[in-house]
Write a structure and sequence with these properties.
Jelly Rolls, four-stranded antiparallel sheet, 10 strands
């Protein structure tokens, strides 16, 4: 199966744009997201399952439950369930891929 970017759901909110690739046929209630962040994402709380980010390009910072770390291209970030987190770009656009619960 191939999901073309033209079939993905586009989204935009302040500072972030991207596409959601719904993969329910293979993994129920999960979404694959491509995003581009310019600035701060804003604090959120993860759901019942981990959120997994892969940094495609750029540099930034991630804070998970009060612990801040630097990230860059090639890093994998795992946000545990029910964790407060936030992330920022620090070098222009931070491009990432995210595996998360569907919403």
């Amino acid at each position: 199966m191939i999901i073309k970017k033209t079939e993905a759901e586009s989204f935009a909110q302040p500072g972030i744009t991207g596409r959601k690739y719904h993969i329910d046929e293979f993994i129920k209630e999960r979404t694959w997201v491509y995003g581009e962040l310019d600035g701060e994402h804003g604090e959120r709380e993860s759901g019942e399952t981990p959120r997994i980010y892969f940094v495609v390009k750029g540099k930034g910072s991630v804070e998970i439950d009060g612990q801040k770390s630097e990230v860059e291209e090639g890093d994998l970030v795992i946000i545990p369930p029910k964790s407060k987190y936030n992330y920022w770009s620090s070098d222009g656009l931070l491009k990432f891929i995210l595996f998360m619960e569907r919403h």
